[in-house]
Amino acid sequence: MKTNQRILHHITEMADEERRLRDHLVTDGAADPAGNRARLVELERELDQCWDLLRQRRARSEFGENPDEAHVRPQSQVENYKS
Questions:
Q1: Rounded-to-integer distance, Cα 49 and Cα 8, Å
Q2: How far apart are the C-alpha atoms of 56 and 68, rounded to whole Å?
Q3: pLDDT given for residue 31 in this prediction
Q4: How far, in Å, CA of 64 to CA of 43, rounded?
Q5: SS3 letters for the chain?
Q6: Do 53 and 71 meet the contact criterion of CB atoms below 8 Å apart?
Q7: What is the pLDDT of residues 10-39, one digit of tens each?
Q8: Which of 79, 16, 20 is nearest to 44 (CA)?
Q9: Residue 10 near residue 50, CB atoms below 8 Å
Q10: Mean per-residue pLDDT, 70-83
Q11: Which of 12, 45, 69, 71 sits in a 20 to 30 Å window from 21, CA-based?
Q12: Is-contact 39 21, C-beta < 8 A?
């Protein structure tokens, strides 16, 4: 369970950073818009991977399997995953 909490905490941190970057782009135009956009893309991909990992862990737990056997899948496999 502690691992799930760490994943959720990491998701929250990344989502907060994503919101700050988006707000910064809208309100200030941002000092480095290209860099901020690149970071947003990176965050979105990392978030997709984290959500996927958390779902894998929860599913494994639900079906009596070891959640620690879940693994981070490639970004190309989980990109734009919708819950």
A1: 12
A2: 10
A3: 65
A4: 31
A5: CHHHHHHHHHHHHHHHHHHHHHHHHHHCCCCCHHHHHHHHHHHHHHHHHHHHHHHHHHHHHHCCCCHHHCCCCCHHHHCCCCC
A6: yes
A7: 999 999 999 998 888 877 665 677 788 899
A8: 79
A9: yes
A10: 80
A11: 71
A12: yes
Q: What is the pLDDT of residues 52-74, one digit of tens each?
A: 999 999 999 999 999 999 999 99
Residue pointed to by tokens 């639900």: 62
Q: Report which residue type is found at 79.
A: E
Angle, vertex CA 71, rays to CA 67 and CA 74, nearest 5: 155
Tokens of 6: 């760490």
Does the global pTM surpass 0.85?
Answer: no
